[in-house]
Write a structure and sequence with these properties.
The complex is a heterodimer of chains A (308) and B (418).
Chain A lengths: L3 H27 L6 H19 L7 H25 L4 H30 L6 E2 L7 E2 L2 E2 L1 H22 L1 H11 L1 H6 L4 H26 L2 E2 L2 H15 L5 H26 L9 H13 L9 H10 L1
Antiparallel strand pairs in A: 1-4, 2-3
Chain B lengths: L8 E2 L2 E2 H28 L7 H23 L8 H18 L1 H30 L4 H21 L1 H4 L5 E2 L13 H26 L1 H11 L1 H6 L4 H27 L1 E2 L2 H4 L2 H16 L4 H25 L2 E10 L2 E9 L1 H19 L15 H7 L15 H16 L11
Antiparallel strand pairs in B: 1-2, 3-4, 5-6
Helix pairs in contact in B: 1-7, 1-10, 1-12, 1-13, 2-3, 2-4, 2-5, 2-10, 2-12, 4-10, 7-8, 12-13, 12-14
Classes of the chains: A mainly alpha (308), B mainly alpha (418).
Chain lengths: 308, 418
């Protein structure tokens, strides 16, 4: 029997890993934290929700659609908002407030969609719902216990392969390292960033159905989990995709483990303050390791251990 | 005898009530947006967590003021203040209604507590945050605000958890007539807003304001001339947070109630995004511009709210059914708040793209009055007495002589300013 805490923490960790990897891909391209990223997850959630509730389709089957839709919205955001503003020479602060504006627009659209579901299909809990059914069982365990880590592993390997083995990936890395130089050698930086934003949005979209399946969802889910995504990304060093993956695993896992341990020691009220853990992780990281995990010289650390 | 304001109704909206309500929200928003202008417009600290400071000041001030009143008046709340607060406040309000002096005390006390709490939050936030680059700072403040709203909902002793608490109402002594209580509230809010405006304008024109701009525009240069950038940013964050906390306290006094729903559901929109758009539309770094942006935006927002109440809501086509040889369009009620979200987001993007400097762009620094400056400025350099070529020292001498004359208060009839 696998302990429910392990199941829970593996699912959480994988979800956070996917999300923070996506956020980091957008950050390294435009150097702006994307405050609308959480709403892309919400889009994924609301792709899965109506299909499951109205047509009885499993959220797993809506994964490709969630990937495409969130990726498309992400691309539209890059094309229509980020690129024109960056071209205009807007400051980082202006670009950040622009992503917050996009988040507001997306929230408004999602809320309108909720209203539509409520009036058209009489779904009363469209603005916030408990986990939807349709979960499959694998060896007596929730399917997500296997599917979520598998997706994370696949995404990581695919991203690694793309970034190191394909011409497109090398172009992305070149554009991230030095935009001007990449342009000089003939890399179409805009197109490369577009693809990066599509992948990032897609990763957020994929999390949506998982979230709906396991944790339920609400129109405000995106604005709540953005804290955890930022925390994971900052812990990973914000400029490293793999660091973000590890940061996501740590933040997601520690959220479950710490609240479980805390509730056993102090009482069940600890669960209410679960969203405080990512914030704590973020504060501690910024004060102790401002460069994140990617900034630590691991080789030196290992060497020091050996000497000691 | 009770004195009440008349009803003037236009398009189903009561204009008198609307203007008073608009004035109150304008005053509160003005304090918040001016404080944001101080930290973002002048010091370049992108505070994405305005909600944290407004909500912090508001929630602590309202619960502390209420509890203190209950304690001083020996009102029994059966050990559960949050649950019995509305009953207790009825008794508190009857006392306050009879005593203007006590009411003013409640106002000052609440504003003081709110400002103190806001300042304390700002001071705490400045520890991890202020040394960071702007993007990290924005993320951290946004995250802190988000967590605080969760805390508000989860911790009933503060503002009652999911059940809103009542707040002492210090405006009731104005009278029981129509809108009279709100009129007094408007006067108090407007007074505070005016004080804040005068204060931030004074800061902007002071050496502190110029130093903050220097820190914002070129942090290496300001450090090179011996300015402590971190301390200056810290100070602007703390001052702005004090103002925000006070604004939050004023808000809860006006509403006479405080509940988590105002902070969790629409909090980020109402108290982070809206103040930001006010500052950006008005013109960051220009207090008058920010006041203009605040007025325009408060008007639009309150109009949406009042308009929805007056018109009862709009509807949106939802689906088309083919039935009996004809198409029937079905409608769903349109929640105007959703449209407001989308419209505000689009407006913010449009301003950022079309006019990022705002309606009233930032002006160059004010040092002295213009007339004084013109009087001081030397004309074209005079040839030195010996007839040699004009030199830099000649220019300096001319300036020094002029200064001497100014200090000696001699008449400047012979002044040859440009």
């Amino acid at each position: 029997m696998v302990s429910p805490v392990l199941v829970e923490s593996v699912i959480y960790a994988s979800i956070y890993g996917l999300m923070s990897m996506g956020l980091t891909v957008t950050y390294i391209t435009t150097k702006v934290p994307n405050f609308a990223f959480g709403s892309l997850v919400t889009i994924g959630i609301y792709v899965a929700f109506p299909f499951a509730r109205i047509d009885g389709v499993s959220p797993y089957e809506t994964l490709p659609l969630a990937f495409l839709l969130a990726g498309g919205v992400s691309v539209a955001m890059y094309m229509l908002v980020i690129k024109p503003l960056a071209k205009r020479g807007s400051s980082t602060t202006s670009l950040m407030i622009a992503t917050l504006a996009v988040d507001t627009i997306l929230t408004g659209i999602i809320l309108l969609f909720d209203d539509y579901l409520r009036y058209r299909y009489a779904i009363i809990d469209s603005e916030g719902f408990a986990p939807i059914g349709h979960e499959i069982q694998i060896l007596g365990l929730p399917g997500l216990f296997v599917v979520a880590p598998l997706t994370l592993a696949l995404a990581t390997v695919a991203l690694w392969a793309m970034l190191t083995k394909t011409r497109m990936g090398i172009a992305i890395r070149a554009a991230v390292e030095n935009q001007a130089l990449a342009r000089t050698v003939g890399v179409n930086v805009e197109r490369v960033f577009l693809i990066a934003w599509f992948i990032a949005g897609g990763l957020a979209g994929v999390v949506g159905p998982f979230y709906a399946l396991h944790l339920g969802g609400a129109a405000s889910t995106g604005s709540l989990i953005i804290v955890g995504i930022f925390a994971a990304s900052v812990l990973g060093g914000i400029t490293s995709v793999y660091g973000a993956m590890v940061g996501g695993l740590i933040v997601g896992g520690s959220e479950v483990v710490l609240t479980t341990v805390g509730s056993q020691l102090l009482g069940s009220w600890v669960f209410t303050y679960e969203p405080g853990i990512p914030l704590l992780v973020m504060i501690v990281t910024l004060m102790v390791l401002p460069q994140g995990l990617a900034g630590v010289n691991w080789r030196k650390l290992v060497a020091w251990r050996k000497v000691g | 005898m009770t004195f009440g304001l008349p009803i003037v109704s236009v398009f189903g909206i009561d204009i008198v009530s609307f203007v008073i309500d608009l004035g109150i929200f304008f005053s509160i928003y003005l304090i918040v947006s001016l404080s944001l202008n101080l930290e973002m417009g002048y010091a370049g600290v992108p505070n994405f967590g305005k909600l944290l400071f407004v909500a912090g000041g508001s929630s602590v001030a309202s619960t502390v003021a209420g509890r203190l009143a209950v304690y001083l008046l020996h009102i029994n709340t059966f050990g559960n203040y949050s649950f019995y607060s509305s009953l207790a406040m009825q008794k508190v309000d009857t006392v306050l209604q009879a005593s203007p002096l006590l009411s003013i005390g409640v106002i000052l006390f609440s504003v003081g507590v709110g400002g103190g709490v806001g300042g304390a939050f700002g001071y705490l936030a400045s520890f991890p945050a202020i040394r960071l680059k702007e993007d990290y700072l924005a993320m951290l403040l946004l995250a802190s605000a988000q967590f605080f709203t969760i805390f508000l909902a989860a911790y009933p002793p503060l503002i009652g958890g999911y059940q809103p608490i009542a707040v002492p109402d210090p405006f009731l002594w104005a009278g029981s007539g129509r809108d009279v209580r709100d009129l007094l509230a408007l006067g108090v809010m407007a007074l505070f807003a005016l004080l804040v405006y005068l204060y931030v304008e004074r800061v902007a024109r002071s050496p502190m304001g110029r130093t903050l701009r220097a820190v914002r525009d070129n942090d290496a240069a300001s450090e090179a001339v011996g300015k402590d950038n971190v301390a200056l940013r810290n100070r602007s964050l703390v001052i702005a947070s004090v103002l925000c906390g006070a604004a939050g306290a004023l808000l809860s006094l006006y509403l006479a109630t405080n509940g988590q729903a105002d902070w969790t559901v629409t909090g980020r929109f109402d108290w982070t995004i809206v103040p930001w758009i006010m500052v950006i539309i008005g013109g960051a770094g220009n207090n008058l511009g920010v006041a203009l942006g605040t007025l325009v935006f408060t008007f639009l927002i309150r109009l949406v709210t009042q308009g929805e109440l007056a018109f009862g809501g709009l509807s949106l086509p939802m689906s088309i059914i083919y039935k009996g040889g004809t198409y029937i369009i079905q409608y769903m009620p349109l929640n105007i708040n959703r449209v407001e979200y989308i419209a505000v987001g689009l407006a913010l993007l449009a301003v950022l793209y079309l006019r990022p400097e705002g309606l009233m762009p930032e002006k160059s620094t004010f040092t002295m009055k213009r007339s004084k400056l013109l009087g001081l400025a030397p004309g074209p350099p005079k040839p030195p007495p010996e007839g040699g070529p004009p030199t830099a020292s000649g220019w300096v001498e001319a300036l020094k002589e002029r200064l001497r004359r100014l200090q000696g208060k001699s008449s400047r009839k012979d002044g040859d300013g440009p």
